[in-house]
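task queued by scheduler; priority normal; single chain, no ligands, no partner chains; default sampling; output format set to structure tokens
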Amino acid sequence: MGNLITVGISDLKIASGDDILITYALGSCIGTCLFDPVSRIIGLSHILLPTVSACPHDTNIYKFADTAINELVRIMKANGASVYRMSAKIAGGAQMFINSTNRIGDKNRDSVIASLNLLGIKITGSDVGDSYGRTMECHADGGRVLIKSINKITKVL
């Protein structure tokens, strides 16, 4: 078994071989897993907000969907992946507070989808919305993604 690599909030990482990328606490945040089946490189981004324009003085480009996904693709390409072979699986985007009118989970989801569409990356699996948190586990040895939540069955994307 490979390494278990944790991706924090407003963070991203890549892996290969039999390594596993994992991120916790996907509430309104979105986890975006990209996989190139030929190079067998996998990447995972845990975004907090939809666009950098929400916080123009924040320098953490991993925090925002519109900058993190581009950076994840750049890093994966620098390590041998091809954007033309990449597919995406996404999770999170929940409405964690029932009385909130902010709908940040929906905004995060929409921004991630728009960013992937601009890059021509097809979404092949998703588990988004509702009102519960998720853990996302991405396996480099084939691109399998597991979604785990309290009191829910594990989903395979």
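post-processing summary
- The beta strands are 4-6, 11-15, 20-26, 30-36, 41-47, 87-92, 122-128, 134-139, 145-148, 155-156.
- The chain has a mean pLDDT of 94.
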